[in-house]
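hi! just following up on the protien thing from before. the input was this:
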Amino acid sequence: MSYFLLAAILIALLFFFFGPGYLTYSETTRKADAVVLYVGPGNPARLDEARHLIREGYAGYLIIPSYGVVERVNSEGRMEMISNDKLLSSRILSIRKVANYKKHYEDTHIETLEAKRLIDTIGVKSLILVSSNY
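and the predicted 3d structure came back as:
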């Protein structure tokens, strides 16, 4: 029994120390048509990163599927809203979730499906996804 407990503690310690490095994922950023922003804890930092990518010229569109927001860089280099869901933006995900998705779908899954719907309407082919490190 004590060997089992010792092994369990060792495994838990390994997960504790090496888990974050295993769960963190990042790639070299390449140019794309759009940046898709997943909202959640630390959202202001995520939004800053998404806007930084657009300012650096990595993409021409910003898509925030949780709010139904699509912005693009205009000819003057400024972001302009091109989506039509401005009035319901704070509730768009919950409304679309009830109307179109089953109860067992998680918010991130729905955000991905909503992003797909939005990118299909504007015709982009490549994306940069901005979410948490985990």
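The mean pLDDT is 82.
Strands lie at 34-37, 61-64, 69-73, 79-81, 127-130.
cheers
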